[in-house]
Every structure is written in C-alpha cells, then in structure tokens.
C-alpha cells in the first residue's frame, strides 16, 4: 500500500536521506559535547530518532506547516532551519530565533503537548481558508512523544481535529521513554490504536526505517491535504541517549536494551543497504563524513562565538503594541546599569 | 524589519443610536467586528444556535455561518489552544469561556502559549486572541459561577486584561480588543448583562475612548472628599455610593479603571493628589490583587499627598461563599461608604 509513496526514491535520493541523517546526528553529537563543555546550558539529544525525523520531515511540502516539540532538530533541518539557529535556545541566548512562516516550522514548544492543540487550530485555519481538498492542498504535522499522549491537550487535539476534519498529521515519536517512565506508564494499549477511539486512522511505523517513515508520512499528509484528515502516526523508535543532558538513564533502564536497539540503528541500516546494493561507494561515505565533520566544526565555531544578548532584550517584544510601562522599566534599569559603568571608570 | 501591523479601523455601521443593555451592546460590538474583518471568528461552548448561555452571541451563527461562529467541543484548553493556532494562521479568534470558574483548564495554554509566543519569537508571531469571560457574583449561583479571577491574568506578562462596566464601553471595548494585536482577557460583569437600569444610548458613529484608558465617571469637584476606584460590576456600586454620599453633602470622585493590565493610573494619581484619600473597590479578593497593585503605585506616586492609607473594599480572602452568603462577600454601597468614613476619620 505504501510502496508507491517512495517509488521515486532512487539510489541518489536514498544517498540524500543518508546524508541528512548523518549531518543531523553529527550536529546532535557536537551539541551534546558542547553542553558537556559548558557552552550550552542543556541539550536535548535526538540520537536514534534520525529516521523518524528525516523521513517525516522530507515528506512535507513547502506549503505545509510543522509544529515541533523541543527534540525535532532533524525536522528543523528538513525545513531549512539552520542548525545554528537551534543553539540559541539551548545556550539560553533566546527562546527561538527562526522565521516560522518562511520555514513552515513553528517555534519549539517546551510545555508537553501544548503544540498539539496549536497545530490543530492552525490546521482548522487551513481548512477554513479552503486550502484543503486537492493534490496541492495544505497540511499540518505536529510532533510529540509517547509521554505527551497522556496530556489532556493531546486528547483534546484529537477530539478537535476529528470534529473539524482538520488536515493534521499527529506524529508521535514513541521513543519508549518519557524521561524515566516507560510507555507502559502512559498506556495499556499500543499508542496508534488510540486513534480508533477518536474516529480517524492510526498507524504504527518502524521509526528507525527512514523510507517507511517517509512513505507513511507522505500518505498521511496526502490524506490530510485531500480533506481526509486527521491521521495519527506512531513512529516506533528509541531514544538512544538521555532525555536531556541533565538526565541519567542508567538509573532506570538496562544497557541491554540499548544494545538491542543499536542493532536497529537508523543510519547504519541505510548505509548497509547502500553498500550492499551498490547505491554508494566508499568515496561517498567518506565525503559525507568529511562534510559532517566540517558541519560540526562550523557549528562549534558559531556556538563559541555567540554573543550574549543585550540587557534591553529582557523587555523586548512582550507585547505587539507599545508598552509605556515596560519602556519606563527598561529605561530605569538601563540608567541603573549605566551607573555601574560610570563608577567603573574611576 | 517588522511586518506592517494590520490595523482594523473600528467603525460602527452607520446605523441609528440604540438604547442597549451591556449584553446587547456586546452582541452588537461583536457583530460590528465580524462585519469589519472576515478573519474574526467566535468560538466557545454553546455560542452558536443557543447564542451562549447568556445570549451574548445571539444570532451571530445564523448570520455569519458555522465556520465563523464555532460551537466547540466542551474543553477550555482546546478552545484556547486551537485559538492560538488559528491566530498563528492569521485569524482573530474571540473565545467565550462560559463562566470564569471554568477558565482554569485553559490556564496552561493562556499562560504558556498565548501570553508568551510573541516574546518567545521576538515579535515574529502575533496571537491576537480575545477571551471573553463573564465574571463576578450576585446572581445566586452554585459554586464556580461567581468568581473574580482577573488578578491572576493581570499577573502574567504578555497578556492584557480589561473589563467593561457599561453598555457604551461594552460596545466599543470589545471591538477595540478584537482589533488589538495582543492577547486580551475581556472580563464582562455578568450580573449586569441584562440590567435595564444600565441601558444607555450607544452611538455607532461616536469616537470611543482608547481601550487602555481609565476614566473619571463621576467628578468630585474641587472639594472632593475621596477618590474611589473600581472596575466592572463594582463601578455601579461606587456610583450608587457616591450618589448616597452626595445626599449627605460629601463629594466622591469615582474612577472606572476599564484597563486592568496595563493599568492607566494617571487619572487616579491626579485625583488622589487633590483628595488625599483613596478607596479601591473590587469583588476580587484583595490579597495579591489588582487593588494591591494600585495601592502600591499610589503610595509611590502620591506619597506626600495621602491624608490616609489606601483602603480596600473587596471580597474576603476566602473562596466564593455559597450564594446565600454572597451579600456579605460582595462589596456594597454601605461597605464603600464605611471605608470612606474611615479614610476621612483617619
């Protein structure tokens, strides 16, 4: 059923997906290391989830809109958001930087599950504007994890999307762990089966298979853009690293489990396939590795040189319209600060 | 460079002056806003066919259709969360919360997304959502139907909070709130919705006062004895108290705050500098409230003018009591005059 959705993926396209995953993983590992060196306040690793993110992200079209949680660095990459633009959030120089409209990629959402309702509302808007109903229709995709499925907002998003036929793909990356809690703490039945209770299709896909993720997400997005949404996808994958750099998975899971999942590594399987089928040669793999190293070096250089934001940024953009009250607070504080500067000159 | 701000000239239809209640004025104001901008949509529980439990949206669905007046599923986080997404898409949603006591399931979306998206994105995402909240007591209702939670929202940076006290303000303020690019909590004095005594001529061709401006609603003159500040349902109580005081030869100056966040205290400072005495009146509990804020700022700005401490007449620091006791809880004419006496005798 889904094969036609990846019929266009020849060896060159597959090499492209491989390259995407390698670059994103390299950016992720470099960022993780930079946190360890004190350059980032925290990092949220995506290690192991590259296929789910690149496969689904590459299924999106320019007119589509993606709502991420805070781990979707791979999806951000597919939407043309420069990996460097993610660093500000984790270096804590800003709360988000990219132009969400230009990229079709909403700001990261940290409160678990909030974005599912926001995405559903956005998709309702696409439908209200008549942008749904044919091959060129628009669709929305929203990312969340297995833990988020317990949130009321996710449940309400399912209800709303079903009632309003919203063109939204609910993309749940079930990485097996909500920090320390296994999926058994969230659900009695497989997560994708929940969709049935809301009256729309739910499907589980191997989240470590980039082609399967691409195919299923293309199908789901097509359903939505033709007006047959919503759809729930459960991408069955594994969080190979910690929840964040502040987490210690050795306290709650066995290393055996990780070893099993290492055999299902989403990048290694594509590499093996490309090598065995002659889809890529050693020179290609070496070139991608070199590109990844250079990508990481640039990322590192950028991060180390990121300036701290100026103090007036505290007060900026709280409101869309002028705020004399905040203007006064800002001026008072800046005057106070400049007092120190003058005192320091003596 | 920031994109040009879409402005919505607030113009009423060139219809005749009508004598309206607050409820009907809100209805007419909503209608005018929907006619002026087809991106304005109304959403909430029972707002369609029923016209809302208070009939404030009466007839709107019939005239604007089910895609602009949405009878939503029964979940407040869903109402606010999808409104955020619709606003990101370019709509201007006006949400109705049925009673103020039911807003709390939506509190997370209000605080975490609605209030912060503009700041988070450094101004790239605007969320022009209005949340209409019928509030206040005196209707003999069961629990959760008579509260005054406005201070909770005034405390959240990124939100604006207003409350109308009369039909003319109701008509204009709702349109101005909808035209604003910032998210606004719009508190409506529910027990006065259908008050015939408050009916007033509303002239759609008039020029309204700015939204975020307080207003002296009863001049005290040069010999004013005290300043009384109130908002929403308490304004009428204070005007009645001022009329009673006048019969005793005592002149009170009454100010309707209208805007609760940001506060427009210029007229209050000016008045207190003349009278030397300030009484604030609210149904909301006084602890950590809007009236606390007023007291703090007045002592800062009018320190040498004060002849007595700022006194507050308010709901007690208890949950809202069973309605058979609400006459004790709600500030009334006598409690206001008692506070005036205390201030004058200080």
Automatic annotation (TrEMBL), chain B:
One of its GO terms (molecular function) is oxidoreductase activity. Keywords: Oxidoreductase, Thiamine pyrophosphate. Its cofactor is thiamine diphosphate. SUPFAM superfamilies: Thiamin diphosphate-binding fold (THDP-binding), TK C-terminal domain-like. It comes from the Bacteria. The keyword Oxidoreductase applies. Pfam families: Transket_pyr, Transketolase_C. CDD domains: TPP_PYR_E1-PDHc-beta_like. InterPro entries: THDP-binding, Transketo_C/PFOR_II, Transketolase-like_Pyr-bd, Transketolase_C. This is 2-oxoisovalerate dehydrogenase. The lineage of its organism: Bacteria, Bacillati, Actinomycetota, Actinomycetes, Pseudonocardiales.
